[in-house]
Amino acid sequence: MSSAIASFATHGQPRPRILIVDDSRDDQRILTELLRRQQYHVAVAFDGRQGYQQALATVPDLILLDVRMPMMDGFAACRLLKANRATEQIPVIFLTALGEPDERVAGLVLGGVDYVSKPYNPAEVFARVRIHLGLARQGRDAEGAAAGDPAPPPVHHNPDEVMVTAAMRLIGDNLDAQLTLADIARRVGTYEKRLSHVFRQQTGMTVFAYIGEERIARGRQLLAATDMSVLEIADRTGFHNPGNFSTAFRERMGMTPSAYRQAMQADAGGAGC
């Protein structure tokens, strides 16, 4: 009996359900055979959109998610998974090619817990899957004990709300970049017209109005909490020009960045008296 089978039998636990999302049938077949050999329940999807929908329908215990896929790539699928309360706690292990460190780092930043490199090493696949299933189980047990093991309420998701949440997080993580509407739409798995419509419907503002508000809000935060120069803050908030940042800041806040910083420092000094 394998260690995985013995563990399930010993603890009286149902066999974990693993969802493999990969457009390569060969890679899917290899992973499916490896994991079924360890007595895991395995389901498959062929692109990020199908994988996301299947995760919503079945809520697997772990997802193996390829990065490079047509229709919707793994990064876009992960953004939606982590923006949805029904799926945000599912551990995601990215499947990446060897020699692609940028992909691995990007996946971890998005909320992935780990990665497995192609071509697959069976021992590595088993180890990473087992570790993260165990960590997820420990987390659920701890939450249940803290809450007195109540029956979890059903989680309902609004697809439009999930899309907008994913877009907002993407924008917040990339305020220093010059994202286009097409960039944002692609990276949350939709198209420009739909994103524009849904974003305005959910927030009451356009995507670029929201970006402008977020840039000023980040600028205010950096002015109040750091000693970064206006030039550095302009660069961090996507203006890349202190004059443009100062003009936008003054129009929104009614004072220059320097005056705002002085006011915040004065307020802090007064509060400390």
Output the keywords.
5 strands; Rossmann fold; 273 residues; 60% helix; Arc Repressor Mutant, subunit A; 2 domains; 5-stranded parallel sheet; alpha/beta
Characterization of this structure:
There is one protein chain. The chain has 273 residues and is an alpha/beta fold. It folds into two domains: 3-146, Rossmann fold, CATH 3.40.50; 159-271, Homeodomain-like (Arc Repressor Mutant, subunit A). Helix content is 60%, strand content 10%. It is built from 13 helices and five strands. β4 (92-97), α5 (101-110) and β5 (114-118) form a beta-alpha-beta unit. α4 (74-83) packs across α7, α10 crosses α13 (257-271) and α11 crosses α12.
SSE blueprint:
Blueprint: H1 3-11, E1 17-21, H2 25-37, E2 41-45, H3 48-58, E3 62-66, H4 74-83, E4 92-97, H5 101-110, E5 114-118, H6 122-146, H7 159-173, H8 181-187, H9 192-203, H10 207-225, H11 230-236, H12 242-253, H13 257-271
Helix pairs in contact: 3-4, 4-7, 7-9, 8-9, 10-13, 11-12
